[in-house]
Amino acid sequence: MKIQTADSAGFCFGVARAVKMVRDEAAAGRTVCTLGPIIHNRHVVEELAAQGVTTADTPEDCPPGATVVIRSHGVAPGVIRRLEDRGLRVLDATCPYVAKIHRIVSAQPPGVTVLVAGDPAHPEVEAIVGHCTAPCYVVEDEDKAEKLLDKWGDLSKRHFVLVAQTTFLTSRWHKIIISLKKRCTNLEIFDTICKATEKRQAAALSLSKQADVMVVIGGRHSSNTTKLLDICQEQCPSVLVEDAGDLAGHYALLSRASLVGITAGASTPVCIIKEVQRSMSNLDNINNDMTFEEMLDQSFKSTYNGEKVTGVVTSIKPNEIAVDIGTKHAGYVPLHELTDDPGAAPEDLVKVGDEIELQVVRVNDVEGTVMLSKRRLDAAAGFEKVMAAGETGEILTGIVTEVIKGGLLVLTSGVKVFVPASQSGVPRDGDLNTLLRKEVQFKILETNRQRRRALGSIRAVERARREELAKTFWEEVEVGREYTGPVKSITNFGVFVDLGGVDGRIGLTDLTWLRVKHPSEVVSIGDVITVTVKDIDTENKKVSLIYKKAEDNPWEKIKEIHQVGDIVEVKIMSITAFGAFAQIIPGIDGLIHISQIARERVEKVSDKLKVGDVVRAKITELDYERKRASLSIKALLLAEDQEAEASMAEAAQEAPEVPAEPAAEEPPVEEETAE
Ligand code: F3S
């Protein structure tokens, strides 16, 4: 059997608009009443009734305080007045095409005769007549029109205006026009047949000419549906069904057909058409294990909000996936209902053909769609897991997705667990943002099933882990053992290192051989360092550590470099009343006593030296036991003096002997003679 649906079938613009107005009003929480069924389709009416929408036949039946929705057929002005007189809010959902007819006929002066081609009992026609101030007559076909004209005799002086019910049969409309044109010389025609109706009727006619059987879907009281049936019946055997359930009565006829055509009235939702199509398709499988009735049952399968269903992924778009859940509805899962991760792409999460568990979020029988959620189902299952973890103390893993006032939100199995700042494990003055997007482990402290809330603690996990590590630590620790761990905190007097469950302390003197004012000159928080256990106090659970290394001991190094008597260049590091300390090598400062600063007596150290000066001095003492070194500038100076003197003496000895100056020659004494 081949099944073909007419090109134009089902819900029209005006009906869809009216239903939406009712839905929106009900969703806003108002008391909604429609004046007459909003649509000739019991499925939609029942669905709206489930949302609290009532139907009243007259303005007087409408509940006080209600918003009264005027359906797409429209009503006469007097009906609106009766509603307003009762103080009711009126929401006019009259189809704009129908409202246009109201404007045409109400604009006609009393001298004009208005003719309406339509069904006089149809609410739309009653409303049109109600808008006429001029004389108005309804004609159902050309015969009725002829008879009406016969009554008036001479028509030459009459001005006629002709309009049509929007869903009037076009073939009949044309026949009426032909009849009227023959006799009425002053005839003004307004073709007010809705184009949607015309299109639907033309498509039904075209298809029914080819089909063996036509199935017309729609309400039995729907004017446009019965007209479609009329059109189809003129071409081939045709049946009217309100939904797939009615097909069972026509099985014999349908099973003999090679081509079955389907059309539907303006009030028929897509889901009903789909349901009928599906049931018709099942006829092809009639010889399979399932009976026709079983297959019909299958095709009726509906769903409801909150139901858990299994869906097969049929297509994937960037912002949603389509799924087949085995009902008449077109299922879809928007991206935000697929996952909690806003950065995720659907194609990374599922692929076409995947079977996934889903929860029904919203069923739209009018549009034939159902919105589903994987996220909510995951969250529901996840919440049970969280509840169980709260009971058992199980450690959960999650991602920190948000930093909010007072703490963090950690996402685990689709559930957001609140972790207060005090339970985050971040120090009080720390930044919670350091945990953002990080994976954390936590324990559940509290749960509230009613409010679907859970409170967790990262700190509790860390505490438990530290306790475990501490137990192992105390079993294994011994003096001299090396540990590597991060620096956790620094005080003026030392450094605390995380040894894994236990914090050990390095005193300032065990931190470095160098002279430092603060431990932060050596290490920073977070530095991972290797330390040696110096002392253990198991009773008070305290561990002393050494960071400085023996091989870096400057007293060992200086042995290889210097000895007493060496002349060295040293830098003045500090000044005291009794002398100055000068660095010989890093880690060893020698004292230059005030008496050793200069040759002469020094009253004040600062008169001769200041911090930073580099001076030459003689190492006068290296006391390895007491770790003391002494220097002397004076000794160096005296030594230099002595050296100078010695040099001079030596120079004197080696100088050539100076001969003694000869005595002045006395003039020779002349000898006296006797004469
Ligand atoms: Fe309006 Fe045409 Fe539908 S008149 S209600 S759109 S059939």
Short précis:
The chain is of the alpha/beta class and 675 residues long. The protein is built from 20 helices and 32 strands.
List keywords for this structure.
675 residues; alpha/beta; Cobalt-precorrin-4 Transmethylase, domain 1; OB fold (Dihydrolipoamide Acetyltransferase, E2P); five-stranded antiparallel β-sheet; 32% helix; binds FE3-S4 cluster
Give structural notes.
By secondary structure, this protein is α/β, with parallel strands linked by helices. The protein contains 20 helices and 32 strands. The radius of gyration is 54 Å and the shape is rod-shaped. The N and C termini lie far apart (200 Å). Among the domains are: 98-193, 3-Layer(aba) Sandwich (Cobalt-precorrin-4 Transmethylase, domain 1), CATH 3.40.1010; 304-373, Nucleic acid-binding proteins (OB fold (Dihydrolipoamide Acetyltransferase, E2P)); 378-462, Beta Barrel (OB fold (Dihydrolipoamide Acetyltransferase, E2P)), CATH 2.40.50; 477-552, OB fold (Dihydrolipoamide Acetyltransferase, E2P) (Beta Barrel); 554-646, Nucleic acid-binding proteins (OB fold (Dihydrolipoamide Acetyltransferase, E2P), Beta Barrel), CATH 2.40.50. 32% of the residues lie in helices and 29% in strands. The strands form seven sheets. A five-stranded mixed beta barrel has the order 13-14-15-17-16. Strand 29 and strand 30 form a beta hairpin. The longest helix has 22 residues, at 633-654. It binds FE3-S4 cluster.
